[in-house]
Write a structure and sequence with these properties.
about 450 residues; alpha/beta; four-stranded antiparallel sheet; 12 helices; 15 strands; globular
């Protein structure tokens, strides 16, 4: 057995090597994911973040008595048949949270420059919400809030909307004030990409320290233009956005292209993938991935997919990811190397969302409610913060789920209201891609 990744440093002090119990039958822990490779089998432990390589002889013995393979018991890959895997994962998470250093600084800021947008996507979750721009006064207060709460640490700014470029002057205003105060920062942006031009890209790199932009494409030219339904677009929106992606790449800004996939555009995205492959394939600054619009995202939507439709869409999405990788457009994200103690910014004390009117929240999906503070006022509502950390009751499938240690089903998050078999299959498929990518690129520990 060869070690590829050691146990996460944050776990090494919590979980001592497991002692072998003579005479006990052993099995693989439920949190172990396997992936065949040439000459053996990779095993990745979702809870401990360790990964090992078994040779062909060891892999053949795995289904019989995994405890016979030296090291699997000590590293918690193999456990007694009666072991309570979920209980151990819960204890690790609980102790990990107890030992976390208190958060002294807010290091991540998602800033909505406006809730207005130049597109009218039919699936937008912001439909029906107020559309307001951030004023110069709120921009000044926002900068002051960041200066005070960053505690001198480097911060990440994520420009969001609506369409953030609809009100780009406040981006420049906030960044200039941070520069004057000596705050070190970098920024990223979620944008539809239409409003970039040479001047804006130059300003973004120079003054906003923009390093990454996420752009959504809903299909090839005809479908994209129909779905986006832009207000008074300049020329052909699809071709303009493709050109703007090239502008950003030429300026050394990384671009993440998100393909929203649903039944209306699933097959069309394969054609789009070929076009993107010709334009950007192999560029290390580009990453293309897909995101399913399972169940309509529009507020008040009642249309639901059947089990068969959901399965068909999931299979299509995984085929699309394979093709994107073949085209040099998709690289799986790196495997997580630390214990997962929160889901996202909503339950992370070091992250906040600042809305155009100065209210401070925890999630970009809550722009008209559930604020806990204001950039121009002292004090905060702790009950709102705790509300974003509240968890949903566990499901029956949680007891057997391989990805349980990394799963946080937050009560306020609509995406966690259900756990479909396709969701779990996709998580495992992506994990296996991550394992292969790391191993094939020789990122091994000697």
């Amino acid at each position: 057995m060869r070690s590829i990744l050691n146990m996460a440093d944050s776990l090494a002090g919590l979980l001592k090597p497991q002692q072998f119990r003579e005479g006990e039958p052993y099995r693989l822990m439920r949190f172990v994911v396997s992936q065949p490779v040439e000459g053996g089998l990779l095993l990745y432990h979702v809870m401990t973040k360790a990964m090992v390589l078994l040779d062909t002889d060891e892999a053949a013995r795995l289904s019989g008595d995994p405890s016979s393979i030296p090291g699997l018991v000590a590293q918690w890959f193999a456990v007694p048949q009666d072991h309570d895997d979920r209980k151990l994962a819960m204890e690790v998470r609980m102790v990990g949270k107890m030992l976390q250093d208190p958060v002294r600084a807010i290091r991540s800021y998602t800033i909505l420059t406006t809730t207005d947008c130049n597109a009218r996507c039919f699936y937008c979750y912001e439909k029906g919400r107020s559309r307001i721009p951030m004023s110069d006064g709120i921009a000044v207060q926002t900068a002051a809030f960041i200066i005070k709460h960053s505690k001198g640490e480097k911060v990440s700014l994520r420009w969001f909307g609506g369409e953030p470029l609809y009100n780009k002057r406040v981006i420049t205003r906030i960044c200039s004030l941070l520069d004057e105060a000596g705050i070190e920062y970098k920024s990223s942006m979620i944008s539809n990409g239409l409003l970039f031009d040479d001047e804006t890209v130059a300003e973004a790199v120079r003054d906003w320290k923009l390093s990454k932009v996420q752009v959504t494409l809903d299909g090839t030219e005809e479908i994209y233009n129909k779905v986006k339904n832009y207000i008074d677009p300049p020329g052909n929106p699809f071709m303009r956005v493709i050109g703007n992606i090239r502008r950003l790449l030429d300026a050394k800004v990384r671009v993440s292209i998100r393909l929203n996939i649903d039944r209306h555009n699933a097959e069309d995205l394969f054609t789009l993938a070929e076009q993107l492959g010709e334009a950007f394939g192999g560029d290390p600054l580009v990453r293309v991935y897909s995101h399913s619009l399972f169940e309509s995202c529009a507020p008040g939507a009642s249309v639901k997919h059947s089990d068969a439709q959901r399965k068909e869409l999931s299979d299509t999405r995984m085929r699309l990811l394979v093709r994107l990788r073949e085209l040099g457009l998709y690289r799986p994200p790196r495997l997580n190397r630390s214990i997962k103690l929160n889901r996202c910014m909503a339950d992370n004390d070091s992250s906040v969302v600042i809305l155009p009117d100065g209210h401070i929240g925890k999630c970009e999906h809550f722009t008209d409610s559930d604020w806990f503070a204001h950039v121009g006022e002292e004090g905060r509502d702790e009950s709102v913060l705790e509300g974003f950390k509240a968890m949903r009751p566990e499901l029956d499938v949680c007891a057997e789920c391989t990805c349980y240690p990394d799963c946080f089903r937050l009560a306020k998050c609509d995406e966690t209201a259900h756990c479909y078999p396709e969701d779990r299959e996709e998580m495992l498929a992506v994990l296996r891609q991550q394992m292969l990518y790391l191993y094939q690129n020789h990122e091994v520990q000697d």
